[in-house]
Amino acid sequence: MTSWRRRIVGSLLGVLGLVVAYTFIYRWSMMSFEGVEITVFESLQVVIEAFTTAGFGGDTQHWNTNAMNALIVVMNLTGVLLVFLALPLFVVPLFQQALEDSPQESTDLTDHVIICSYNSREDILRSELEAADVSHVVIDDDPETVLELNDDGIEAILGDASEEETFQAANVEQARAVVADVSDEENVPVILTARELNEELLIVSVAESEQDAIYHRYAGADEVIRPREALGRSLAKKATLSITQELHETLELSGDFELSELLVKPGSDLAGQTVAESGLRNTIGATVLGMWTNGEFIPLPEAERRIEDNSILLVAGSHQQLQQVNSRTIAPKASDDDRVVVAGYGVVGQSVVAELDEAGISSTVVDAVDGDGIDVVGDVNDPETLQQADVESAKFVVLALDDDTTTMYSTVALEQLVSDPEVIARANDVENTTKLYRAGAEYVLALSTVTGRMLSSVLIDEEEVLSPDLQFEVIRTSAPALEGRSLGEADVGDITGATVVAVERDGELLTNIGPEYTARADDTLIVAGSDVAVNEFIRLSK
To answer: pLDDT digit of tens for each residue in the chain (542 aa)?
Structure first.
């Protein structure tokens, strides 16, 4: 029962108690002071008349003693207080509140995913679930958050995710899975409660570190993902790729067909050329499947499209071909200092440093709080701190900060205080990635993107996310709605903006996929694009 309901019930019980008390007091007073015996119902009638100021019946002739008249005065004053003071000030607002929208407190969904609780990371996951037509409900303990979600048409209920009553209201007995993403400490009781109520339930939790993941598994989680570590490794790889000029990790789809995400550095051989002028396809034999430029996603860029500085290319081909493309995305070294400055030493920052160490690249760690592994203590926006970290001579600055506003200020500050800085940034919310690109960052990846993709890959059976930690989303999926239709006929590219990269058919990988490709029942498609484009493809093809 919510607080306003408790207050309404309490107010009504209080008025009822006064009525009952005055009924017996009036009956007793009539017998004691006036010697007149009346029934309980006759006494109740007089009390109601007094409380409602509706006038009195025939008892006035019996009110001859001072004590009896004093009781009537008190009853009248009580009625006046109730009608003209208590009701307008307390009861009426309560009923008005009761008539207003209230947070949803239960759901009738079945075969659904229960998400505990709501934050920006869940937006990507919800988009993936909606595209795959998987129903879901969000549990959150903030009434305003639940109301906002309900107003937006999102199934959400109010409650504490660690309480049995909340999970029962979320229909946990008929759910397919639970996502525990509250905090590392609060996830444990959430997992324990969900597991106790449904032993067959798939429970997926989000952990910050391996140590936290261990306790989540002890509590009963079936799958534990660590998106912060994956994010940190991805940010570091963008730096190591430019420094070492060696293409070590790609998405290998077959022995001679791979995908890679490559950042085009200012001053590189590709920067400023059109796709046709670059000769990537005609000379090298690689295919540009997509391009991120100035925060805009461009699927299958046309031959006249210019490759701008800091564009991100999704390229397909053999490993040797991708290595050749990579060598043309790297600018000549301006100095021999390949050091990377890492700002922020939380889980993401520590993962960045670990990846750099593994690649043999030195780093300087800056953090506002001193501790093990910190080289410079201070604010990364402070010119003195930047000078101590010798940012001017560093190859890259990786901003692994846990606040998007601070990251944006830092990016702008670096643009003003350091000549030609190369910034790789972590964002929390995906909507801030474009803002960070505008602020001057060369590469941005959002924690919400990585988290949502990693969760959806576990939760959606028909879909496998191959690139949780890249700017592009690449998935392996079936497409039953396209069976018997060609891509050109279905107009998949124009409608969705996604690209069918390859098709797995009868144990073989078909890579030259054009508009004439016609889907078969057992085909598995490799699809690439932005998150929005890929989700649109899933909706169209299911």
So the answer is: 455 566 667 777 887 888 899 889 989 988 898 888 888 888 888 888 877 766 655 677 888 888 888 888 888 888 777 766 665 556 556 555 555 567 889 999 999 999 998 887 788 899 999 988 999 999 999 998 998 998 888 999 999 999 999 999 999 999 999 999 998 889 999 999 999 999 999 999 999 888 899 999 999 999 999 999 999 999 999 888 888 777 777 889 888 899 999 999 888 999 999 999 999 999 999 999 999 887 788 888 999 999 998 899 999 999 999 999 999 998 876 556 789 999 999 999 999 999 999 999 999 999 999 999 999 999 998 999 999 999 998 989 999 999 999 999 999 999 888 887 789 999 999 889 989 998 989 999 999 999 999 999 999 988 888 888 888 899 999 999 999 999 989 888 889 999 999 999 998 999 988 899 999 989 999 999 989 999 999 998 88
**Which candidate, 195, 179, 193, places its Cα nearest to that of 140?**
179
d(CA 112, CA 135): 5
Q: How far apart are CA 286 and CA 317, in angstroms?
A: 5
Cis peptide before 242 (omega within 30 of 0): no
Query: Which positions ≥6 away from 280 have C-beta within 8 Å?
Result: 270, 286, 287, 288, 315, 325
Q: Residue 49 burial (CB < 10 Å; 0-12/13-18/19+)?
A: middle
What does 230-257 look like in DSSP terms, one character per residue?
HHHHHHHHHHHHHHH------EEEETTE
For residue 61, the one-letter residue type is: Q
Nearest to 445 by CA among 462, 460, 463, 429: 429
Q: How far apart are CA 206 and CA 538, in angstroms?
A: 25
Beta pairing class for 287-293 and 312-317: antiparallel
H or E element at residue 210 = helix 210-219
Using CA atoms in the order 59, 65, 70, 76, what is the torsion angle rounded to 10 degrees?
A: 10
**Rounded distance between C-alpha atoms, residue 25 and residue 20, angstroms:** 9
What would the two tokens of residue 124 be? 């990507």
Pick from 359, 426, 420: nearest CA to 395: 420
**Residues 6+ away with beta carbon under 8 Å from 288:** 275, 280, 281, 300, 301, 313, 314, 315
62 alpha-carbon distance from chain centroid: 73
* C-alpha–C-alpha distance, residues 269 and 327, integer Å: 9
Residue pair 299/499 in contact (Cβ under 8 Å)? The answer is: yes
Strands (E), 357-472: 363-367, 376-377, 396-399, 423-427, 443-446, 463-465
CA distance 363 to 210: 23
Angle between helices 210-219 and 184-197 (to 10 degrees): 20
Q: How many CB atoms lie within 10 A of CB 89?
A: 9
Could you tell me whether strands 499-505 and 524-529 are parallel, antiparallel, or unpaired per DSSP bridges?
A: antiparallel
